[in-house]
Each structure stands twice: as structure tokens, then as C-alpha cells.
Amino acid sequence: MSLDMPKFSDLDALYSSDAKVATQMYEDPDLFKLEMDKIFRKTWVFVAHDSEFPDKGSFKLSTVGLEPVIVVRDRKGAIHVMVNRCRHRAATVCEVKKGKTSSFQCPYHGWGYGLDGSLRALPYPEQYGDDFNKDQHGLQRLRTESYNGMVFATFNEDIEPLVDFLGSEVCRYIDLFMKQGGGFPVTVLGEHQFTVPMNWKVQLENTTDAYHFPVVHKSFLQSLDGETNEIFQFLETGKGFVEDLGNGHSVMAMIPELIDLDDNLDAPIPERFTELAQELRDEGYPEDQVKKIVRAVGGAGFNLNLFPNVSFSLAFFRVLTPISVEQTDIRHMALGMEGGPAAANQMRLRLHEHFQGPMGFGSPDDAEVWERVQRGTKGGEDLPILVNRGLVDETPGTLGPRGHISAETGMRAAYKMWKRMMSQ
Amino acid sequence: MTEMSKIDTTGLLPQVTEFLWAEADLLDAKEYDRWLDLWQPEGFYTLPIGDTTDFANALNLCHDNDKMRRDRIERFRQGFSISSAPPAQTVRTVSRIVIEKAEGDVITIRSAEHVIEDKFGRQRVWAANMTHTLVATDSGFRIRAKVVRLLNSDGMLNSFSYLF
Ligand code: FES
Ligand SMILES: [Fe+2]
């Protein structure tokens, strides 16, 4: 029982043992503040992919919870994540979203910081006296670790190493996901960004929600050719599964035969990729590489959902940033093959544009229903939100329960972690 | 301006203005069949992100060939897309029209577009720089390319249930 916030002392009332979520969870600004403190400041938060700041001196702006940070690679290649706030009187030291630099200089009074955040120089330091210690006035640094190109940061100095937080199953799925480089390193080709009037947990739920797919994405499915449409009939066929991978993470495997892209490479090339395959042959790629690249173009057959802010979604990264209790920013990062054939990357770009982003055939419908959830919770304050689907036939998986493809097992994994973190 | 086969330069600005206004009117009225008729089939309708000009090798908000334009409009109309049934209502103005280039029967026009959308009783405002590449034909202008650069194309957007 937390004495500082007696209002939320009963966490079971917010997320019950029979998988019901209280309406307050989407709506209470005090609860949101507490979440930012107890979750986003306490755990590993995804901030960037390696390819977004590839060179020495490359940087990009990001966030950890509500806090603006700079992710930068120094001259020795080490990655630093630091709060974008001058230690003099708090001005942001950088407002360029992405770029290359040798230092960060505050525009207000000119304090200059190195790529590792250390305070290098300030104009007229004499007035601070002789005992002013520059070492204690560097930008606030976060602990930073990465796994397979995914960079995470945390304010929590005592947290377990990133790989332990992810766990063996998540690491295995990340490695499988990265196979969609088709033999090339995975690189971020661009991103779609949109903000939605919803609580961040509405998004967290959605990345592991196969149940909505045939309903919300009917118009997308109708725009596909028959063969591709077939692939997305995972609810009809009942193939696939959702599995709790521990620490709030989960996997939703919609297309099990595409979990490992190196499997069944001899399967015939799908109709929609035959033209691309011929183009690659014409460019001189040997047949085994053609098959590998073509297989990789469509992405992996699963969504890997990491608590609290990033999902590896079939062929792209989906990142959420909480803005307020009723607003969340979404980024859909398009991925490609670094140094791979232009034709394959173009196809990946067009596939991404087809579904994702503000003008995709999928995302706008997602955004609409998420907003509907937020609007709907204005009524019936006492009614629970149900995430108990598929509890009836869950079986034990490797690290946690495994449910039907349309089960809400992944949401329960996330809420279990939510509860664990909020009780500490 | 080399060859001015089908183009009457003196009357050009009023002519292209009339065309852009008529197009804007069709888009606000969601008269999409008539909008599709304005296109040359090989043309691309593009909303880029940032200032790229290499649309094929970049991620765009949309980069539609003829088939994608038709699929997009089909999606708007079929009634299964919850975000476009009903869609946001829009009122737009197109102005600050500049004829960039007129060569042969091909004209490049720059203009400003402001769109106000209304849905759920909430209004949003969008501003864009547009570039139209038009071809003068015997039956009037046809669009060979249209590029709409939203002012905040690389910022946080919302989803769009209409065309720019
Ligand atoms: S606020 Fe940065 S130097 Fe004064
Ligand atoms: Fe969806």
C-alpha cells in the first residue's frame, strides 16, 4: 500500500485478477503521472535504431516517457543518451531532429557540451568562483544499452541489464525479426508519425490484438490480391498463437510459417513477388539469394511486443510516446535492407505506405477505433474493460501462457507487468 | 518557353486557376470519379515526407500510381473503412498560383493549399505547397503529376480520410 498516493493503493481494482481493466486506467491524469514515474522512468525504454544515427557524431532526438533526450554516437562509436536540457537554466540544447555534430551548444548563454554530454566550456566562467566543477554540470545521462541494433535507455541505474529485461525468448524473436534484412543489415528507411487522442495503453493493447484485424482492416484486406488476402485470414484458419514472454513482453504469431524466414526457402515465390524476383535475377543475383530477398520483402510472420513502448510489427517498428493521459504519439518506422537491391527496398516502401501512416489503408482505421475507445470511456465509469478473451483455453508456453491467435494473452502480459511496476 | 503549341500564354493563368479551383471543388465534394478522370494514367499523386524529390526511393505519405489512386478511392467508398465512413468534411482554398514553366504542352504550376477538416465536432487545419504538372490536351488539362508537400509532413500528423 502506497501512502504517498492512497488514491491508487488498490491496484487490483485497476487491473483485476480476472483480467478486467478499470475505466480510470485510460482517464485519470494522476494515474498517468504515476505511470510516467513508476514505469517510464524505471524501466528500459526504446529510443532509437542504430541505423538512425549511423556515424560518429550522428544524433537523433527521442523521448523517454515525457522527457526529451538526445541519442548520439561519439567519436569512438559509443552511444550516449542524455536529457535535452541545459544544466544552466534548462533550455533545450538541440532542436534539430536528426543530424551530425561535434558538440551541442546551448543557444541561450553558450554553454558547450561534448558528444558524451560533458560540459566542455562556458563563457566567462569566473563569476562562478574557483570551486565550480564542470564535471558536475554535464547533461543528465541515462544508462544506455542495445540489442541487435535496438537502442534502449533508462533513468534507473539499478535496473537489470537490458538482455535480462528482454529475456531469452524476446532476444530469440528479435534475431528472427531481423532476418527480414534478407542477408543485409536492417535499416530504417523513414517513418510515419501521427498523434491520437488516446491513452498509451490503448496502443499497447492493440499491437497484440489479432481479434480486430478482419473487422477494422476489412477495407485493407479488400485491396489485396487473393493470395495475399489468404495470408491475413489467420482468424479463420485459427493458425498461430499469442504468447506471454515475461516482463510484460509478448509475441503474436499470425503467420507461423513466416516466423523463421530461412525456413522453406524452396517454397514457390508468391505471385505478387514474381516480378521482383525476375528483376533481381536480371540484376545478377544468384537464385538462392533471390529467394532469400524475396522472402524477406514481406516481413516476418509475427508481432513482437515489448513493454512499454516498442513493437516489432511484421515489417516495421511501432513506437509509442505518451504525451498526456489522453494523447499518444505513434511512429511507424519503415525498414529496409541496407545496401540491398533498390527494387526490393522500393517494394518494402510501397508496402509500408499501403498500410501504415496517416494515409495508409490500415492505420487511419486503427486510429479511429483507438479514439473511439477513449471517447467511449466517457460513459459508464464503473464498467470494466475486458481483456479476458482466450483465458479459457490457454496452455503453458516457454516462459508464460500461450493462447489462441485472437486471445488477449499479450495484453494480460502487459497489464501484469504494469501492476508489478506500479506496486514498487 | 520554347514551343507553345497548344498553350495561349496570355490566357494561361486564368485557365490553370480555373482548373485548380475546379479540382479543389471536386475534392471537397468528394466527387472522386470525376477527379480520377482528370488524370493521365501514368501520373503519380504524391505526398512526400520532408523535402525529398526521389519519391520512388523514399518513404512518402502516399505515392499513388493509377491503381493505388483507384484502390484508395474504392476504400473511401465501400463503407468498410471506419475512418472514412463517415469521412471528415473539408473546405479548402487554393491560391498563390504561379506558373513555373510552360514547355510544349506541359505546364508546371506551384500553388498554396489550405484545408480545414471537421470531424467529431473538431476542426483541424492543414497547409501545403502543391506542384501540378499539367498537360494541355484537346479536351482540356490533364494531371501528369501532383505533389502536395504538407508544411509539417515530417512532424506529427493525424490520419486523413480525404485527399489533398
Ligand atoms: S540556459 Fe543554457 S547556457 Fe543558459
Ligand atoms: Fe490494426
From TrEMBL, chain A:
Name of the protein described by the UniProt record: Aromatic ring-hydroxylating dioxygenase subunit alpha
Membrane-spanning parts: none
Cited PANTHER family: CHOLINE MONOOXYGENASE, CHLOROPLASTIC
Signal sequence range: none
UniProt keyword terms in alphabetical order: 2Fe-2S, Dioxygenase, Iron, Iron-sulfur, Metal-binding, Oxidoreductase
Tagged with keyword Transferase: no
Reported cofactor(s): Fe cation
Organism encoding this protein: Pseudotabrizicola alkalilacus
Pfam families attached to this UniProt entry: Rieske, Ring_hydroxyl_A
GO MF term list: 2 iron, 2 sulfur cluster binding; dioxygenase activity; iron ion binding
SUPFAM superfamilies cross-referenced by the UniProt entry: Bet v1-like, ISP domain
Domain of life assignment: Bacteria
Matching CDD domains: RHO_alpha_C_AntDO-like
Coiled coil: none
InterPro entries per record: Rieske_2Fe-2S (IPR017941), Rieske_2Fe-2S_sf (IPR036922), Ring_hydroxy_dOase_asu_C_dom (IPR015879), Rng_hydr_dOase-A (IPR001663)
Domain Rieske: 44-153
UniProtKB/TrEMBL annotation, chain B:
Record protein name field: Aromatic-ring-hydroxylating dioxygenase subunit beta
Molecular functions (GO terms): dioxygenase activity
Keywords from the UniProt entry: Dioxygenase, Oxidoreductase
PANTHER family with a match to the protein in the record: 3-PHENYLPROPIONATE_CINNAMIC ACID DIOXYGENASE SUBUNIT BETA (PTHR41534:SF2), BLR3401 PROTEIN (PTHR41534)
Positions of transmembrane segments: none
Family indicated by similarity: Belongs to the bacterial ring-hydroxylating dioxygenase beta subunit family.
Any one GO biological process: 3-phenylpropionate catabolic process
Gene3D superfamilies found in the cross-reference section: 3.10.450.50
